[in-house]
């Protein structure tokens, strides 16, 4: 194992960003939660909220970005795997327990913490992997790192098998952690007024729409109007500065009846396209039973959290580019809770199909189930943490 650790630490330079100034350590039994990425860290943010509210322990989160931190949690960038930096990090924060997530193993970090007798476990675990840039074969290293984890809570049987194959023993299948609420707010009076205005009109939303996907969405809308002549398209451009440009092009060059929300224009009965902005996404998700997630078809990747419309009952259409939401799209796909499309023609076909309220409702119900699960897994993770701290 010593040879493996040496080779591992020589395999590349530090994988984290430069060290930032560290705030003072809060008083109390500090818990350190580590997420290897934003997608894998979603459940940790909610777990941190539970720890703060239910147990009152200070919480430190390390992740590539701060993410949606609960009030009271501290964030730091992921420390590198060099011994001096790890020692300095642990000397400063002095955690009393560490929970890793996602399956990523950082052997130098784990072994340094083990020497200090800090209890550790892993939650929300997938197959074990080493950090990006450190992949390779290091004799006995992964098995040694896994041996220092008191327990590993995995998301499914496949992850459990992968962990056992790598040398882990204390494994429990608990499913995915509960994630932060994706329900966006809106003004109820505004929603009720627009709902009355749009009564009996079918509505669909294209959120986070980049310029490259505008032709596909507009053509799909044009095709769907042959089936539902009162259909309203709500567009939220990825770049809000593009809203007036898009409105003018659609009106003058293509003859569409367009309303621009930031000019206080309302969707009148003859309006075919309403161009809105992201500040009111909670409103649009509530009004649109069907949402296309922009950036996922011809853009650089989806930039809008798919769980937000799912939590509000909107059925989902998306392309093959998930952006930073790969795991979320994977869960939705496994539950048959979203419609995937690969081209502009596919988008038009999916829209026509999901104009049927029954079909859209089935997708929306399945998606809501995906975004609302995980409470039991979070309870198991909290119980595990309390055992690590000697409080259970």
UniProtKB/TrEMBL annotation:
<comment type="function">
    <text>Involved in lipopolysaccharide (LPS) biosynthesis. Catalyzes the transfer of 3-deoxy-D-manno-octulosonate (Kdo) residue(s) from CMP-Kdo to lipid IV(A), the tetraacyldisaccharide-1,4'-bisphosphate precursor of lipid A.</text>
</comment>
<dbReference type="Pfam" id="PF04413">
    <property type="entry name" value="Glycos_transf_N"/>
</dbReference>
<feature type="domain" description="3-deoxy-D-manno-octulosonic-acid transferase N-terminal">
    <location>
        <begin position="25"/>
        <end position="177"/>
    </location>
</feature>
<protein>
    <recommendedName>
        <fullName>3-deoxy-D-manno-octulosonic acid transferase</fullName>
        <ecNumber>2.4.99.12</ecNumber>
    </recommendedName>
</protein>
<keyword id="KW-0448">Lipopolysaccharide biosynthesis</keyword>
<dbReference type="InterPro" id="IPR038107">
    <property type="entry name" value="Glycos_transf_N_sf"/>
</dbReference>
<dbReference type="InterPro" id="IPR039901">
    <property type="entry name" value="Kdotransferase"/>
</dbReference>
<keyword id="KW-1003">Cell membrane</keyword>
<comment type="pathway">
    <text>Bacterial outer membrane biogenesis; LPS core biosynthesis.</text>
</comment>
<dbReference type="InterPro" id="IPR007507">
    <property type="entry name" value="Glycos_transf_N"/>
</dbReference>
<keyword id="KW-0808">Transferase</keyword>
<comment type="similarity">
    <text>Belongs to the glycosyltransferase group 1 family.</text>
</comment>
<keyword id="KW-0472">Membrane</keyword>
């Amino acid at each position: 194992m010593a040879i493996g650790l040496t080779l591992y630490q020589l395999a590349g330079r530090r994988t984290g960003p430069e060290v930032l100034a560290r705030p003072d350590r809060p008083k109390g039994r500090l818990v350190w939660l580590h997420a290897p990425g934003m997608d894998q860290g979603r459940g940790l943010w909610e777990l941190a909220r539970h720890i703060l509210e239910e147990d009152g322990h200070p919480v430190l989160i390390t992740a590539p970005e701060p993410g949606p931190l609960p009030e009271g949690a501290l964030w730091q960038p992921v420390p590198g795997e060099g011994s001096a930096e790890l020692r300095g990090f642990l000397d400063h924060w002095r955690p009393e327990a560490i929970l890793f997530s996602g399956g990523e193993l950082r052997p130098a970090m784990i072994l340094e913490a083990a020497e200090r007798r800090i209890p550790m476990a892993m939650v929300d675990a997938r197959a074990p992997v080493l950090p990006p840039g450190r992949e390779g074969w290091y004799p006995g290293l992964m098995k040694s790192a896994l041996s220092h984890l008191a327990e590993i809570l995995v998301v499914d049987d496949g992850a459990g098998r992968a962990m056992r194959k790598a040398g882990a023993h204390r494994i429990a299948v608990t499913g995915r952690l509960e994630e932060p609420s994706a329900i966006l707010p809106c003004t109820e009076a505004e929603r009720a007024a627009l709902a009355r205005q749009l009564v009996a009109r079918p509505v669909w939303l294209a959120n986070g729409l980049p310029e490259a996907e505008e032709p596909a969405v507009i053509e799909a809308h044009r095709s769907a109007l042959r089936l539902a002549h009162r259909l309203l398209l709500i567009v939220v451009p990825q770049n809000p500065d593009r809203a007036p440009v898009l409105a003018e092009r659609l009106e003058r060059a293509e003859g569409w009846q367009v309303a621009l929300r930031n000019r206080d224009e309302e969707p009148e009965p003859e309006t075919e396209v309403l161009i809105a902005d992201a500040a009111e996404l909670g409103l649009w998700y509530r009004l649109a039973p069907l949402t296309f997630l922009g950036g996922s078809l011809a853009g650089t990747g989806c930039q809008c959290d798919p769980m937000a419309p799912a939590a509000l009952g909107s059925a989902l259409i998306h392309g093959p580019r998930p952006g930073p939401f790969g795991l979320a799209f994977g869960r939705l796909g496994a539950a048959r809770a979203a419609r995937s499309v690969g081209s502009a023609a596919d988008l038009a076909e999916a829209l026509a199909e999901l104009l049927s309220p029954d079909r859209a409702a089935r997708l929306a119900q399945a998606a809501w189930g995906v975004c609302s699960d995980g409470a039991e897994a979070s309870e198991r993770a909290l119980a595990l943490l309390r055992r690590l701290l000697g409080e259970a």
